[in-house]
Specification:
The protein has 189 residues and is mainly alpha-helical. Helix content is 54%, strand content 0%.
Length: 189
């Protein structure tokens, strides 16, 4: 097949492109306002970014020429400025909270130790002896989530022993509820 001259190929290409664009014209007309709006928004944001860049460079130049003074008045105090007088709760076993966050908090390690006097001056309650299952599980160091994962394999007798141990000791409501519910489910089977 013979090749047409370049000029004819060029004119045919322009004509076909014009026909294709004419067919797209209804869709293009519908999209045109959105295209214009997005283009204008893009230009406005670019101008704002350029202006912000100039302002930052101007701030840097002013700061270099005139170093800032300490703007904090003498009477103003901030938490960072003061020495911590109270110790924050540590994560080495001290419980930071009860309630809904007890699931993930670390239980008190030394709560079951006996004291010499009770806060109200009465004789302290006798120390509760831990059942063997508590020692096997390291119950006193378990969080609620850890206990929930481990009690699935315990017998009803072990669960009752842990519940009695909890009620006689710390009497933490989330732990008691978890153990009581597990006992109920295990006995219902």
């Amino acid at each position: 097949m013979a090749t047409a001259p370049y000029g004819i190929r060029l004119l045919l290409g322009v004509a076909v492109t014009a026909i294709e664009e004419t067919r797209k014209l209804p869709q293009t007309l519908v999209m045109y306002p959105m295209t214009v709006a997005s283009t204008v928004a893009q230009m406005v944001m670019k101008v704002q970014q350029d202006l912000a860049g100039f302002a930052i460079k101007g701030d840097a130049a002013l700061e270099a020429a005139f170093p800032p003074k300490d703007e904090q008045p003498e009477w103003a105090t901030f938490d960072e400025d003061e020495e911590a007088t109270e110790e924050a709760p540590s994560l080495n076993g001290d419980r930071a909270t009860e309630g809904r966050f007890a699931l993930f908090s670390v239980p008190d390690a030394g709560v079951r130790a006996t004291s010499t006097t009770a806060p109200d001056g009465e004789d302290p309650a006798p120390a509760v002896e831990a059942p063997p299952v508590a020692g096997d599980l390291d119950y006193d160091a378990l969080t609620l989530a850890q206990l929930r994962a481990r009690i699935q394999s315990l017998s009803v007798a072990d669960l009752r022993a842990l519940l009695a141990y909890e009620e006689a000791g710390r009497a933490r409501a989330p732990y008691q509820t978890l153990l009581a519910n597990r006992i109920t489910r295990a006995t219902a089977k």
